[in-house]
Amino acid sequence: MRLGRKPVLAGLAVLALAGVLVWWWTHQRVYPGTDDAYVGAHVLTVVPEVGGRIAELAVDENDHVAAGDLMFRIEDRALKAAVDQARARADAALQSAGAAAEAELDVARAASREAEADYLRQEGLFRRNDVSQSALDRALAARDQALAEETAAAQQLARAQASLGDEGDRNAGVREALAALQMAEIDLDHATVTAPESGWIANIDLRPGSVVTAGQALFSLVGDAEWWIEANFKETDLTRIRPGQPAAIGIDLCPALDLEGRVASIGPGAGAVFSLLPAQNATGNWVKVTRRIPVRIALDPVPEAARFCLKAGASATATVDTTAAPGP
């Protein structure tokens, strides 16, 4: 009788094991998970838009900054001088647009009036026989020359107005000078660099007195306003995963911390597709390997006390509940 119990117990053990395996397979299918996941955040590269010497440095490695906080300031004396120079040129352009040609016309008109008066005076003296015919002829020639110079000055003014355009700030030369002034003021504003968003300073090797150039990458700013999980799921797990489904998140840095999130998006291709040297499988010894597709999971608001556990690139785990209806 005792010998008859062994096969029964063995059968029960096999059934129990089979039940566990079925439960595990079903659970993995309904709640797909992966430990190939990492914490993601916006990492900004801080680049100056103007070059110069660092006059003030307000941040250091691992410092936290709020949006709008001063990070560093570039020596701006030359930039201020450029603004003053551009402003002076703009003022001069506003004052002198067509003024030179108008001044020449005024001089020509005055000379013409004077020549006309001299001719009339010489003509009166000639009638009284007080001057010779040659003197009257010279006065007439001077008057005609003055009239010709007045006409030429008027034509020169017309050409100047046609080439310069409208008066005041509608004049092409004036607009060019005002644009140069605006660019100089923008460069001066760029000498003061503030944080575009709140976050943490990283990878900084900058000191007061260092000379930087426009477009030079100086350090990074890891934003703390938005966090997500970049989870790489097996392609066979994606049959039920949809955007909006809830997900449970674990952070290796803080094992006791349980976070929640929702599937934000599913990548358009496997990670190998976007690598610098994509794998070439057109060989005779090809072995099929299950690919992994990146899935971005947006984290729900994280308690302030738990924010220490969020580090860009930190390892994480993600499990998606595919039984829940996708959210909005």
UniProtKB/TrEMBL annotation:
Keywords: Membrane, Transmembrane, Transmembrane helix. Residues 44-221 form the Multidrug resistance protein MdtA-like barrel-sandwich hybrid domain. It comes from Rhodovulum visakhapatnamense. The chain crosses the membrane at residues 7-25. GO terms for biological process: transmembrane transport. Residues 227-320 form the p-hydroxybenzoic acid efflux pump subunit AaeA-like beta-barrel domain. Its main location: other. It is found in: Cell envelope. Pfam families: Beta-barrel_AAEA, BSH_RND. This is Membrane fusion protein (Multidrug efflux system). Gene3D superfamilies: 2.40.30.170, 2.40.50.100, Helix hairpin bin. It comes from the Bacteria. One of its GO terms (cellular component) is cell envelope.
